[in-house]
Structure formats: structure tokens, C-alpha cells
């Protein structure tokens, strides 16, 4: 098994590709290698003309994706490093957005920071009752670093999106559903797999070529004013990433995670 296959695993069942970020011991943190493995997986999926939909989730029941891998990213200090990181992550999210069939993020746990951006790049989000989603980047004195603000602003509008980014809080699924970030939440005793099966049913009932045509319309809508937003987001991330306040906050975060009471983390 290759490194990419270890970091991201996938299988197809009944015309649906199930993709799993496979770093449960790291709360499915998004390292550069993990992002590359996801991009490869979705690029391959785009060539499968028999697919009806893709479901993206994380291993375990704790985290969908706990954001970027801060231990790895701690060495990236320059503006050029920040821009390269943004472009690398954005390429993965672009591969998800460009997938020619609907993509559903199944939030089996917390989607935080870059993990929230990853979830937003999908067409839909469904969640387990214990899941959470949070654009918490401002707690590290940075802005979105994976290109997810474009999706957030498109979905919520400018005023609500700004408030979400500034609040930098993890939202429980019902709160996020009321805001419009999550489409459906499991009932108290409903397994996430059952909700996913119900949610994908309308897609598996249609021919793949019809779904591709529908997704083509969605992507055409998404491209309106997209590049201007992407450029602004990239510049804002680089500027906040190299600011001293970010590194002070990041150091505090990493020191908390190194404390024995919290155990190993990213």
C-alpha cells in the first residue's frame, strides 16, 4: 500500500465512491501529503463515468478533519511558504469542487479550520449529532488558508460570513444547520451511515450523465467572481500567516497540545 493509499482510503459501492481521510490517530489533520492524496483520489474519481456521487468522511468518530497539520506547518515561516501552502491546499479543494458528480461531506466528528474549509468545498454536508464545524482560524490570528472563504461567502453572504470568521467558534450541527452550513443532521439514534444512504438516494436514482450535467450547472454558478475572491483570500492568508501575532498564537496552541494531559495531537 502506497503512502497516499494509507492516508486516504476509498471504495465504491452501488455507484457511490466513499473516501475516508485515514489519520484517526492525528484527528485526520490535513498534512501536505494528505491533501495531495485527497487530490489524487478526487482526480481519479472524475474519470469514472459510472459514479453517481462521492461521500467524503474521516476515520474514527472524533474528527472529520481537525484542520491543517500545525506541527508540520510550523516550519513554514515566509510569505512564499504561506502562498505555496495556500496553493497546494486550494488545488485539493478545487479537485473536490470540480468533481463532476455531487460530493457529500459526512461529518463524523469535528471539522475545524482547514477541515471546515474542506467540508465547504463539497456540495453538501451531513452530520452526526456529536459533530461540529468551525472556522476557527482567527484564534490563531490568521484567515482561511485553503481557499474555503469563497465557499463560505457564496453560501452565507458577506455579512454572515464575516461574523462566522470573526466569531471563530465551533458550532454544533443543529446551530450550523440553522445557519445553512449543514444540510442534514442525524436523529439522536440514527447512525451516520443511514443518513448518508438516505441523502445520496436521489442521486443514485438518476443516470450518471444527468448528474454530471447538473453538477456542470453548479460549477458554472460557482465560477461567478471566483478568481477575484481567490486572489483576495490568498493575499489575506499570506499577510496574516507571517504576522508575529500568528506565530505567538500558534506556539501557545502547540504547547497546549504537547501537555501530557492532552496527549499527542497535531
From TrEMBL:
Alphabetized PANTHER family for the sequence: ENOYL-COA HYDRATASE-RELATED (PTHR11941), ETHYLMALONYL-COA DECARBOXYLASE (PTHR11941:SF27)
Source organism superkingdom: Bacteria
Location of this chain's protein in the cell: Cytoplasm, Cytosol
Protein keywords: Cytoplasm, Lyase
Predominant place of localization: cytoplasm
Family to which this protein belongs: Belongs to the enoyl-CoA hydratase/isomerase family.
Gene3D superfamilies to which the protein is assigned, alphabetical: 2-enoyl-CoA Hydratase, Chain A, domain 1
InterPro entries named in the record: ClpP/crotonase-like_dom_sf, Enoyl-CoA_hyd/isom_CS, Enoyl-CoA_hydra/iso
Record's function text: Decarboxylates ethylmalonyl-CoA, a potentially toxic metabolite, to form butyryl-CoA, suggesting it might be involved in metabolite proofreading. Acts preferentially on (S)-ethylmalonyl-CoA but also has some activity on the (R)-isomer. Also has methylmalonyl-CoA decarboxylase activity at lower level.
SUPFAM superfamilies in the cross-refs: ClpP/crotonase
Name of the protein in its database record: Ethylmalonyl-CoA decarboxylase
Keyword rRNA-binding carried by entry: no
Pfam family, one: ECH_1
Enzyme Commission number(s) from the entry: 4.1.1.94
Catalytic activity: (2S)-ethylmalonyl-CoA + H(+) = butanoyl-CoA + CO2; (2R)-ethylmalonyl-CoA + H(+) = butanoyl-CoA + CO2; (S)-methylmalonyl-CoA + H(+) = propanoyl-CoA + CO2
Coiled coil: none
